[in-house]
Amino acid sequence: MTKNQSKRLSEFTSADHPVRRMRRLREAAIELVLFLAAASSVLITMGIVGILVVESMPFFAHVPLKDFLFDTEWTPLFENARYGILPLLAGTFLSTFIALTVAIPLGTVAAVFLSEYVRPSVREILKPVLELLAAVPTVVYGYFALLFVTPILQKIFPTIGGFNILSAGIVIGVMIVPYVSSLSEDALRAVPSHFREASFALGASRMQTGFKVIVPAAFSGITSAYILGISRALGETMVVAIAAGMQPNLTLNPLEPAATITAFIVQVSLGDLPHGSIGYQSIYVAGLSLLVLTLIFNVTGLYLRKKFQEKE
């Protein structure tokens, strides 16, 4: 290398060269954009939490926390209003439990089938078709539960009413199957192929390999699918608002009508209570309660996922 070439190279590689300065500016701009994109979700979440907390404070200034947590009646639309959250919690937990009873087995089996049984070309067709269930509007699911599932249940249980939490829970479970199956299938396919080869070499069948080797190996990822399913079932609104009856009953009988936290928010948001009243502010308290429930389930799920990852 000549002396002039060496000089030009040192000038180009110096920090003050215009090309390098421009490159640093572009990288700094890209880094700033990425930071703003990442921080926006955090800021939006903090804003939502702040609004719920601020709007809930006047409610608790009139309603004792003890009555809110332990009263067994929720009648904010009545003249002698009662604000016990337990009936709404019972309906929310019952519908979520029924939905998970449907979605977790179906979603897991569908994920194992797509991951271990079908050819890749067939999988590329079946998986998008299954995920189309997530694109159906929830109001359609609500009327499907009311007009199709409920009449079938009435033939099985003659005493069941037109509105009940069982049909709503079943349809919510069908609705969240794509979330569970899609994420679970991704986790199953991420398991190294030598797990399958070792299982087959020991004489295991395809079903034994799928459920006794691959599913345990991918269970930390499958847990994430279950967490998403739980959060989706907790936050479902239209299905329970249409099919469950929106009657806040403190019951664990799935054949009876019930109301969930989200259904109550929809009911009050229709304008049945004047803006600024205690009853209207109760929707913010209900939203805050739902947020706390979702947070508890997510934190618990992440803890369990970490435990499974440590065992793996």
Please provide a written account of the structure.
The protein is an all-alpha fold and 312 residues long. The protein has 2 domains: 3-62; 68-311, MetI-like (MetI-like fold). It contains 13 helices and no strands. It has helices at residues 3-13, 18-62, 65-70, 86-116, 120-131, 138-156, 165-189, 193-201, 206-217, 219-234, 238-243, 261-272, 278-311.
**Discrete helix count:** 13
Note the gap between the termini. Answer: 55 Å
Oligomer: single chain
Major sheet description: none
Strand content: under 5%
Number of domains: 2
Mind telling me the CATH superfamily name of the largest domain? MetI-like
Supply the CATH architecture of the largest domain: Orthogonal Bundle
- Coarse structural class: mainly alpha
Number of strands: 0
pLDDT averaged over residues: 84
Low-confidence stretches: none
Q: What labels would you give this structure?
A:
single chain, 312 residues, mainly alpha, MetI-like fold, 2 domains, 13 helices
How would you summarize the topology of this molecule?
Elements: H1 3-13, H2 18-62, H3 65-70, H4 86-116, H5 120-131, H6 138-156, H7 165-189, H8 193-201, H9 206-217, H10 219-234, H11 238-243, H12 261-272, H13 278-311
Task: Describe the structure in brief.
The chain is built from 13 helices and no strands. By secondary structure, the protein is mainly alpha-helical. The protein has two domains: 60 residues; 244 residues, Orthogonal Bundle (MetI-like fold).
